[in-house]
Amino acid sequence: MKIRTRIIWISCAAVLAATLFGDAVIWILAGRSFREEAFAKAYQNAYVYAEDLIQTFDADQTLADNPIYLDYYFKTNWDDFNILIRVKNQYSSEDEWQEIYNHTVFTEEFLRDMEYQSNENMEYCNLDWSGRRYIVFRRPVGGNLCFFRIEDVSYVREKMEWLTVCMLSIIFVVTAVTVLLLSVILKHVLKPLQELNETTEYMARGYYDQRVHVRSKDEVGQLGESFNKMAEAVEARTRSMEESEKKKTLFMGNLTHELKTPMTAITGYAQTLLSVKLSEEQQEEALMYIYEECTRLERLSKKMMKLLELETESGLIFADTPVEQVFAAAEKSCGVILRDKEITLEISQHGEIFPMDADLMTDVLVNLIDNAVKASERGGTIVLKADKNVIEVQDFGCGIPEEEQEKILEPFYMIDKSRSRKSGGAGLGLALTAMIVKSHGAQLKIESEPGKGTRMILQFV
Asked: Global pTM?
């Protein structure tokens, strides 16, 4: 069952219960009021007739014993609902009942046998007859006479039936109006929820760019805003996972390619050594090539392991380390490649201290200096300096095109693949550098211009 239908049913039930309760209270109070009003009116009529009869007999007592006068008096002055009965017969020693005037269907015996209740000057009882309701009043008059008055109060029941019909009509109208208003209001109020449901269905099918239009600031609007934030987070996470998956696929493809080249060469030279008789010089050359390719694979595996460690590392511990210490370690590690190419490393620092992992930061500087050496001409210069919260490695070599500057931080990406392979590179150095710098909460910036050189800037917070 839809929430709108459920709310309408619940609301209608509540309105119906409240209306029925209110109508029941009104019906009970109105019925009591109608009955009291009818009784008062009937009592007043009976009392007036009885008092008139009493005053007549008080004026002349002989009239009460004259049947002809009484019959004439009743026929000319009273209606058919008055009854006069003689209680005692003057010619008999026992009490007898004798009807003097009675135009009703009720006999004197029937009227005598009813149970009456006392009320001031008269007695009364209720009588249901032929589907109608009457009140019978009784009062002694003139010593030996008994006066009865029958009042028809059936109109009270008719009034109650009319009131019941009106109340049922009101209940029907109120319920119908309630259903109509709730349908219109809930359609407007729950429209954002309907849109939210439709948007959720779209997202379930993979359309993560869907958003809910927030129209209000109430709870429904807040729900829409929260949903939009959640959708943005899901979309960002999904895109991140997709990009990560693409990178992993590319990474594995590049890794396979990088491993295939040296392995093919190693296998080929090994088969040659096993199957072909070579001179001592040729054997030495083949073994040297196998050794160099194995060394390259070793370096590649070490960098791969370091990348995996950084991706899973959750708690690196940094210590305030003098930059002089890191510079000295990097210079020592790069001493061989600097001498081989006759490149001068100019170091400048002013006692700066940074929170870092000394070994990881040494790897960063070694990778940057190594790349600078590869980009520089023989006999060139590389500048390594620290100033305030910045460490720079600058060369004056071939430079990096602007469109390549973002890509070189990706694993296995190489601008000049032939030159990189010739120098033993696999395109992992800068990717490793970028991850280490990020783990330190620093930023790696690249400023480069083709033909003029490159500045690699490590900016600490």
From this structure: 0.44
